[in-house]
Amino acid sequence: MAGLTGVVGLAALGGMAARDNKSGADRLSESQSSTAKQNVSDAGKADSAPDKGKKGGSGSDEGQSMESYGREWRGKDGREWRGKDDRRDDRRDDRKDGEDHAKEVPCDTETLVEVVNKAVRDDGGVFKLAKDCTYKFTEQTDQNAFPVIDEEIKILGNGAKLVHEGTELFRFFEVNSGGDLTLKDLTLSGGQVSGPPPAEGQGGALLVQEGGKAHLKKVTLVHNRATATGNGGNGGAIANFGYVTLEDSVAKDNHARSTGTGGNGGAIYNEGELKVHNSLLEKNTATTNAEGTGGTGGAIANFNDGIVTIAYSQIIKNLASNDGGGINSEDDTRLTVNRTKIAGNTAGGEGGGIYFDSSNAMRVEHAIIADNKAAEDGGGIWHDSDTSSTITGTKFYNNTAGRNGGGLFNDGDLTLADSEFKDNDARQGGAIFNNSGDLKIRHTKIIKNYASAPAGAGGIFRDGGTVELDDKTVVKKNEPTNCAGTVDGCFN
């Protein structure tokens, strides 16, 4: 199943691709002001260099279908699936870019900061950056490159990059209550924050406070990081306590790190409402030290009543030192995943693809969960919910757990329908391990999965709770047996 991992790279994501490969066409902001505020400087770069990403062509397909195991995920016209869904109700919320009356900003870092600062003091504004310019930031004010946003600000990037350089640690943007920030066609690279919460150690590129909003479209977030001790260091690229949308965008090689309970959300840490659409989250990491209990959610960590909705996206090759190699969602959170590929993620604890532990429900629909690994339980998904969750139309391929539940580990109330498990493996329950939850399986294929323990059951291992199969579910050709622990309707 290696073919499913990274099927679509940056170059295939159209408007989502980073615009870093401009060679001689790129311009640099070279402002030299007597105030020294936001000077362009070549003094020592931060510990991560800007990404040298690839350009990609635009284009998307409506109503994509997912094809069979072992083949590339393609749409009906044979092109690689990009995840676009032009039908979704909230694709446009009638927000206007305002390009016709945007103020054009020259390729000068200090000027950019000054015009945004003036707009924040006044009643907001719309700005269009110089095409393909690289704005370099070496200094900060209160941990931010720009003034704190508490008005409506729109920045139309025009292919530009905002790049952190030098030794000072700061993010690019902070949005306070009442603030509304729109970023479009822009790269944020190298933002770094470090220190104690609530602000300094959260959100390497962007921090959205409660009551604030941020809308990112065709934005690339790369090589940003948040580090701290204790419960800080969350959200390598974004920390959200308000409302954030991420559309047609890329978050790659961002890092969250802390000791203790922090270091969550390699790309995004959420305690508000987060919507991700048609975006790629790749090679982000969430880590903590050996004694820490944080380091969860290699791509996304969702905590404290947070709401996360992900559609038509890819979450691939992310890593968490503890739970949730791709996504970690706990503490009364809600999670919805629709037509999304979660593949090649690794968890040092549980839930290689997704770790979900909440009193609320999880919804996974028409997804691919493939090539994920968990050192402990739940190679593909680890689930525990007090409310009835559902997994529908989802393919679990080639996931691995060091202990139980190669494809799925269930400890809650879950209905699994119209899905498929193949080539998953674990010590017990190669496809599914039911611990103490109530699991209903409808119209699902569980074929050719493996367990290493002699009595481990390659198909379904019921350790406790209930497992109910309907007569349209097929469990066969699993090794060493199809089922263990008494599963009515399953024959070995």
TrEMBL record:
Compositional bias segments (type: Basic and acidic residues): 19-29, 44-54, 69-104
Segments of this protein annotated with the region Disordered: 14-104
InterPro entries: Pectin_lyas_fold (IPR012334), Pectin_lyase_fold/virulence (IPR011050)
Taxonomic superkingdom: Bacteria
Skewed-composition ranges (Polar residues): 30-40
Name this polypeptide is given: Right handed beta helix domain-containing protein
Organism, scientific name: Micromonospora deserti
Organismal lineage: Bacteria, Bacillati, Actinomycetota, Actinomycetes, Micromonosporales
